[in-house]
Design a protein that fits this description.
Length: about 260
């Protein structure tokens, strides 16, 4: 069995902790011979600590599935936004000073003002924060608009102008754009194929909009927590409690470890 996990709000709590009971249950499943992977919307630099804590040594993905990395850290596949798309998304919006954005390229992010306190977290992670300027040719992992209530309007505009890109609208707070086929479902198919695991032997766990494609693709799927995106809840076969309440740990105990005894 291949167990495929989202991180935030699935394994990781709202205050960014990986509870011991979840880590121990996943370790026990691995020790019992099951395969474990992670597919997260986080960039690699923000996922590394959790990947290490979970001892992920198989192919896994970051940036919503657009980047697939082997267990030894080598790159398997990277889809990216074309420089022409990045320029079209950002150059025309540079004058909109109330519309903040970030353009993620590996461990570098390009923003309007690197000194702004908004990017303190990125500096703390050791990421390079650079100034975005019109004319830069960037093959980005993703573009994020932090839009002060403008995300819904922007989502509608970009759906019309860039229908080939994947869009993840998180409330009306921010909007992420990633490459075509750079989603978790596509990444999970690649990972399962590399591991020689049939679709019917894959169990996917998630909660958010960006988890929907892998929830739909997996042979068995589990929605996690109280804030599950409605389409994920509808598509999933089961629903468990949030990581604060040990939902995934309990599922593994009841459906994997007990069955193996």
């Amino acid at each position: 069995m291949l167990l495929a996990f989202d991180l935030d709000k699935t394994l990781v709590t709202d205050d960014y902790r990986l509870p011991d009971d979840i880590a121990q249950a996943i370790g026990a499943a691995r020790a019992a011979g099951h395969l474990v992977t992670v597919l997260t919307g986080r960039p690699l630099v923000a996922a590394r600590a959790f990947l290490a804590q979970l001892a992920i040594d198989l192919p896994h993905s970051v940036n919503h599935g657009s980047t697939i990395i082997d267990g030894d850290g080598s790159l398997i596949e990277r889809k990216h936004l074309a420089p022409s798309d990045v320029s079209a998304l950002l150059d025309a919006r540079l004058p909109e000073t109330d519309l903040e954005f970030s353009c993620v390229v590996g461990e570098t992010i390009y923003v309007r003002d690197p000194a702004h306190e908004r990017w303190t977290f990125a500096h703390a992670q050791g990421r390079l924060v650079s100034t975005y300027a019109s004319g830069l040719l960037l093959d980005a992992d993703k573009v994020v608009f932090h839009s002060n209530g403008q995300s819904t309007r922007l989502d509608s505009e970009l759906a019309a102008s860039h229908p080939h890109l994947l869009r993840y609208l998180w409330g009306d707070g921010y909007l992420e754009l990633v490459p075509e086929n750079g989603d978790k479902g596509s990444a999970l198919q690649v990972i399962a194929a590399r591991l020689g695991v049939r679709r019917t032997e894959v169990v996917a766990f998630g909660d958010g909009l960006n988890d929907l494609t892998m929830i739909r693709w997996a042979g068995r799927s589990v929605a996690v927590g109280d804030d599950v995106y409605p389409a994920v809840m509808e598509a999933a076969h089961e629903h468990v409690a949030a990581p604060e309440h040990g939902g995934v740990a309990r599922w593994i105990e009841e459906n994997v470890l007990v069955a193996d005894r």
